[in-house]
Amino acid sequence: MPASSSIDPSLLAHVRLATLTGVGTRYRRRLLEVFRSPLDVFSASPEAIAAVEGLPRKVATAIRDASNEREAVDLIDLCRRRGVDLVVEGDPGYPKALAHIDDPPGMLFMRGAIAPCDALSVAVVGSRHASPYGLRMAARLAGGLARAGYTVVSGLARGIDAAAHRGALEAGGRTIAVLGTGVLSIYPPEHADLAAEVLAHGAIVSEAPPHEEPHSGLFPRRNRIISGLTLGTVVVEATERSGGLITARLASEQGREVFAVPGPADSRTSRGCHRLIRDGATLVESVDDILDELGPLASAAMTVDGREVRSPAELRLDDVEQHVMTAIDTGSSHGGVDIDHLVATTGLAASQLLATVGVLEMRRLIRRLPGGRVARL
Fold this sequence. Notes:
The protein contains 17 helices and 14 strands. With 377 residues, the chain is of the alpha/beta class.
């Protein structure tokens, strides 16, 4: 068992703060606003801790009396032995999209790996008690998203979640499972084989300690991670009290797209989706309904084949359109790039080049400038 002296002090402090009883994400962020780092939190005086505005006395007392260094060391040792990565907010490997939500996890436990291409991801969630129709739609939509170059994110639960993961895997795509348990405590247990497949083609993540068993409080909290990792959330079958509706609400609050699949009017598991559609969610009949609505990326992302994209719409370009976009990227300055230059560099006929520029403009990827020039949006 390693001594604390063999562990990076910053990591140890992060783990201690993340596992300290009573210090959730809200109080953690308030502390870091004042003290900048977990190391500074634990080295601060009791008076300085007590003076933090909005911090309850019991939390200040818990920090002052913190004696969880041994537990944190043991947790780090467990992760090292079992191949679990500790990803701290602010680390290069921390998902950028997740960092932009109001209450990102201070630390993620991860098996497998989140890749740069996973910035292009969509959540597919829904009822655990799914109908054959719901399972079929979840698998079909997830497969279509995977074939279009998106990573499918879900919760490894029975029903819609499992169908979404399997649909992505069968299409040869990537998928990420966000657990309401620890990453070494797969739930439900019959999904152990599915979890192994997800690991081979993506990642399993949780903010709970690795051996945490399922309990009711964990599952609603994990929903903000599912929506926070993605560009949008698709709900396929949901009752009026479904966790899928929680994920959809969180996605909306996080500024992400919300989609819902309609179902039979007399089906209880259709009511949640129909309510979402009435409230403004995009109605989904096919994967194209999702792809047409996905908004811009917070920052450029890499596709599986190594291309940099700044908008999800770029994943739907044909070879000629991609060729022209590359030429615009290569030739652009602050004043854009001249159409004649594009004709020369692409080798396309002027008529074909202009038609392609029109398509790219319609897809809101470029804009026309005065003097016969074009530029990226």
